[in-house]
Structure formats: C-alpha cells, structure tokens
C-alpha cells in the first residue's frame, strides 16, 4: 500500500507526449491528459469543433456534456431564424451537418438534419450536401416560436393523433417534444400546445395551438393568439412560467409576421384575412377589444400520408442562399 506522500503524481504533458513519440504508449495521447487540460483545449475550439470533439467518444461526451444522456445542441446550432440560410458562413448548424456526414448518414438541406442514406434517391446523393433534399416537398414548418417540425416530425404527430383516436394513448400521450396534451375537438381527438410569449414590457401573447386531422385525413392547425396590450403601471403580466425571450417574432404563416400584420388590423374590411401565398386564414375574434386582440389562424398542413405534398411545402420556411 502506498504511504502518504508517496502517491503517484500525474505525468506532465511533456512526458506523456514523449512516451507516445517513443512508442511506449499505444493509446491516443489525449486519453492520458488530465481532465482540466481537456477542458482548456475544449474552450479554444470553434462551436462546430466543440460538438465534434464532444461526440468523438463516450468519455468526452460524459465529461463535456453535463446532460450527455440527452445531448442537445444550443446556441448557434438552433435553427431559430424563419428562413433556411443554407450557404451562409455563419450558419454553424449547416457546417456541422456537413462535417457529420459519413457512410451511413447524409445531410438534408430541407430538414436541416442527417437522414440515413437509403432515404435519398441515387440522384440526390450526388448533389452537394446543402442542395440535397430527402423529398421534393420536404421542409421545416414553424408552428410556435418554440416548436418547429420536419416532415418526419409531422408523421410522428399524425401517428399520435391516430393513436389518440383509437384510445391507444389513453388520453395521456408522451410526445417526444413533451409539449402537447390530448383534447377533444369538433373533428375528434386533437393535440394542444400552449405558450406565452413576451413581446416587451407591455405586450404579451398567449398562444394555443390545436392540431387535428380533418375530413379525408388532412392535418390542420387552429391557433388562437390572444395579444394583451397593457400600457401603464397596472398592466397584466403573464404568469405562465414557460415564457420565451422578449421581442420574439410570431409568424402566423411563413409569409405573415403577426405583430406587423396586426397593425394593419384597423384596415381589415371584413373580420378575416388570408395569406395569398399559402391560403392561411386569419380571423379576428369578436372578444377583441381596445387592449386585447384575439386572432384565430387556420393552417392546412397537407394530407397525413407519405411523402410531403405541396400543402406542406407551402407552409415551410423559405430557403435563402
Ligand atoms: Zn429531409
Ligand atoms: Zn410554444
Ligand atoms: Zn402564408
């Protein structure tokens, strides 16, 4: 047993590297480095290199990602903008997807995800990664500032709705986003998501999204936006803990930013309006008053079958190069 004071000291970096050069070590040198040095190296890397370094082995995934069992990309990898900026140098997510491609996975620029290579046609696999699409009408649809869906996500939602209709989900579903609950709509079972979005000190919005399958199994959403405008010291504030960051834009559809559109609301000749590009309908609800505007936005997300159709594509983010 080693006596106190005779415990083995960690080897210096020079000794570790020398042993590696002399062939005394067969393991990669980086595994012999003290953990504090690993952190120092990590701090110097670019965001894309940080992710690749973290994903290089389970050891680094465990020490560098505090929630390694549910690794989530943050910061520059979140596709939060309302357009897909595919070739922009600042789009870290795109760079990462291209870096992570391998013999099994290929980048899809429509979903901003990696898919198994067998999900692409031979022709599309020959395209550059940021021009490759898994299917013609694929794309990302934003339903709420906190919820964006690829077409594969949409298929999961359709399955949840069908399970709920069969009673298989026992009315309490566990969706992968953990943001929905089941409710009964005029068209049968639906999924509901609720959110609160703070615009600034005086404007906040309650969002209630209902997803359901209409006649002929078309997926639709009815979203009620209740916009509270309370100037003055007695303003009402949201007590919903799931507030998003201030100044978040809300898009009624990919082509209409709701707050910008609301300013034109006085000029609405009728109590409804619609987007000329995707036919999303906006209805001004009768409960609207001076300090509160309530708008119902109805969107069609295409048929529930595979592959994506033009209705889905009309609701997708626009692509910018
Ligand atoms: Zn795709
Ligand atoms: Zn939300
Ligand atoms: Zn539109």
From TrEMBL:
InterPro entries linked: F-box-like_dom_sf
Protein name per UniProt: F-box domain-containing protein
Native species: Talaromyces proteolyticus
């Amino acid at each position: 047993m080693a006596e106190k004071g005779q415990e083995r000291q960690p080897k210096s970096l020079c000794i570790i590297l020398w042993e590696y050069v002399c062939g005394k070590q067969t393991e990669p040198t980086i595994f012999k480095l003290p953990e504090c040095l690993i952190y120092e190296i990590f701090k110097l890397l670019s965001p894309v290199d940080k992710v690749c370094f973290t994903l290089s082995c389970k050891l680094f995934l465990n020490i560098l990602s505090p929630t390694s069992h549910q690794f989530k990309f943050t910061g520059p990898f979140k596709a939060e903008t309302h357009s897909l900026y595919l070739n922009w140098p600042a789009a870290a997510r795109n760079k990462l997807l291209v870096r992570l491609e391998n013999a099994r996975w290929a980048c899809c620029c429509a979903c901003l995800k990696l898919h198994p290579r067998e999900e692409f046609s031979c022709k599309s696999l020959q395209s550059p990664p940021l021009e490759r699409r898994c299917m013609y009408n694929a794309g990302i649809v934003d339903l709420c500032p906190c919820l964006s869906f690829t077409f594969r996500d949409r298929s999961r939602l359709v399955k949840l709705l069908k399970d709920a209709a069969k009673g298989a989900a026992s009315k309490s579903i566990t969706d992968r986003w953990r943001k929905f609950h089941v409710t009964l709509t005029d068209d049968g079972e639906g999924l509901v998501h609720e959110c609160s979005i703070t615009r600034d000190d005086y404007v906040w919005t309650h969002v209630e999204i209902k997803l359901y399958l209409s006649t002929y199994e078309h997926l639709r959403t009815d979203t009620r936006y209740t916009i509270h405008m309370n100037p003055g010291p007695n303003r009402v504030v949201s007590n919903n803990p799931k507030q998003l960051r201030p100044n978040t834009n809300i898009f009624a559809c990919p082509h209409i930013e709701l707050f910008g559109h609301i300013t034109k609301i006085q000029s609405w000749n009728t109590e409804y309006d619609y987007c000329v590009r995707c036919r999303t309908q906006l209805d001004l609800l009768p409960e609207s008053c001076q300090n509160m505007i309530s708008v119902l936005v109805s969107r069609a997300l295409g048929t529930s079958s595979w592959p994506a159709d033009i209705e889905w594509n009309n609701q997708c983010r626009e692509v910018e190069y």
